[in-house]
Amino acid sequence: xxxxxxxxxxxxxxxxxxxxxxxxxxxxxxxxxxxxxxxxxxxxxxxxxxxxxxxxxxxxxxxxxxxxxxxxxxxxxxxxxxxxxxxxxxxxxxxxxxxxxxxxxxxxxxxxxxxxxx
Length: 118
Fold this sequence. Notes:
This protein is an all-beta fold. It has strands spanning 2-5, 14-21, 27-34, 37-44, 47-52, 65-71, 75-82, 86-89, 98-101, 106-112. Helix content is 0%, strand content 54%.
């Protein structure tokens, strides 16, 4: 997970970016949140697909995407569950070829964190 501070701090103080890549580096997936809004980007062999709802109001969320977030002593866990098909455009946010993330798909990010001292 990467955290990018927002120099304007209008809605929140940071964007959280969760990302993962295939072992060969031919595919990467990135999920970002800012305030209540979110964005998804998938890159496959250099071709980018995506959808971005991080906009002026930052309250728009993806239809057909549920998430759960859990905080543990030694790690954080973010689970993305697609309850319906989600189409990602190429180039992102434009009309063009699409890739579909199928209903029932899940992606789990597990992030190590320092041990909390009591």
